[in-house]
Amino acid sequence: MIETDVLIVGSGPAGSAAALALSTYGIRNMVVTKYRWLADTPRAHITNQRTMEVLRDFGVEDEVNQKRAHQNLMGNNVFCTSLAGEEIGRLYSWGNHPSRMADYTLASPTTICDVPQNLMEPILLSNAASRGSRVRFDTEYLSLAQDADGVTATVRDRLSGHDYQIRAKYLVGADGGRSQVAQDIGLPMQGKMGVAGSMNIVFEADLSRYVAHRPSVLYWVLQPGANIGGIGMGLVRMVRPWTEWLIVWGYDISQPPPEMTDALATEVAHNLIGDQTIPIKVKSHSLWTVNHQFALSNTAGRVFCMGDAVHRHPPSNGLGSNTSIQDAFNLAWKLAYVLQGKADPSLLASYDAERSPVARQIVERANKSIEEFGPIFDSLGLLSTSDPEQMKRNMEARKDATPEAAAQRERLRQAIAHKSYEFNCHGVEMNQRYRSAVIVPDGTDEPDWARDRELYYHPTTWPGARLPHLWLERDGRRLSTLDVCGHGRFTVLTGIGGEAWVAAAQAIAAERGLPIDAHVIGPGRELADVFGDWAEMRETNETGCVLVRPDHHVAFRAQAVTSTAHADLEAAVLRILGRAPAARRTVAA
Fold it and tell me: What pTM, to 2 d.p., does this model score?
């Protein structure tokens, strides 16, 4: 029997990221996938700042950036009758509006970008393998059995047909939206699969003349009468500027699926481009369904599910692979600490408590974003008739010099602007605040949302929140607060006068064998707050303490140093690691 510490089923963004994290932390792991290679189509692509922070922590950010389409190429969401036809409206997207660019710049040391899944997965898995992950392609997961000490999985070599077993202490189910692992462990699901039908068409064509002046990753094409129900809306998505593309086009899921051919794919592409003379090379086509389902729990015993196995939704908002990679970041350090004997297995329960609410949030947000196309259709007069010719006349009516047309134009403007909830969803991407038994409350109320919580990121050091990014300086070199933290270690941040927290962290690290870094921020110290941003953002006194987990989330906070600093910090660390209950404490004034 083959043995490993963690068996990962699936090599998509979640599975590959989990392997990369575990190997980076020095944990034996094995990845099995029934496929012969990684993603063969671009599928997921939007890569948000939080995911880029995770990749930065893993040391692969620069490699990912070599494959990216930069943020400035993502800026225009275009609504049109075809790429060559009339433009209906446009929306600044992904933080490219001048008033939103500052929000994104202040939030992270990284930038949002576009990296297709077939380019991302090889980076994740190759780095995982180079750091120690064992990878078995053409290996199909069949079943599992758990006991008190581990998990035994039965798999099949698809080349030889031979079945064999792999024994692991823990198993990660990252096997996608039809997860057999999630089914085998009986995860409770809410929602519905297969609520709509879609086709993907990947093709090559030089469309520079129609798009280079309005760079975007998404071009929405409305062609009344071209689809089931009379409202034809297709998506032309940039894969590589401006020569590789992916079209998303719908079909009636209540009817038999269409028979896909290169000829049909070419016809659909030419219609959406609006230029029949453009040479097209079809690379692939496939059918898929829109889902609205999430797991109410992601864990059963020693098995943990992540990625599409527990959050199944349309690609709206670009949250799928991002959330999958972040699932892995949350779980991997906890598995590492337990397997290395640094934490009690009870720590692992926090994965469910912290990530299941995120799964539900993104599924509901992505499906709501589909519904929010409705006001655009309504403002164009596409919902008041089933006659395609009347729809076209209704669209044309918005150009008239009449009060009715002026009102129609205003409704359209507002409807397109509202799509910021899909294309500028910075808060959805960055505002996760965890609540679990391993977050130590400090007695303060959760900070209010000063602006819309879905549209805007709200930085705070409140326990459970991600540590805010701010620029510090060390030996003349700029680095983020997030660069100081993470990398599989706990981190204590304090200021001048808070040296007792540093001494406590060093003593606890030595006594308990725990990786804990500690830093004093201030003039003449190792880290300089050159802009004064940390002083403004830390939400503690200068002598206070912020304890940051390996995944950048704040675990404990104290307003000021006290004579019980050592005991307070130790109690917090032991509570997080499940070694002892947290001591009762009061918040210093």
Answer: 0.95
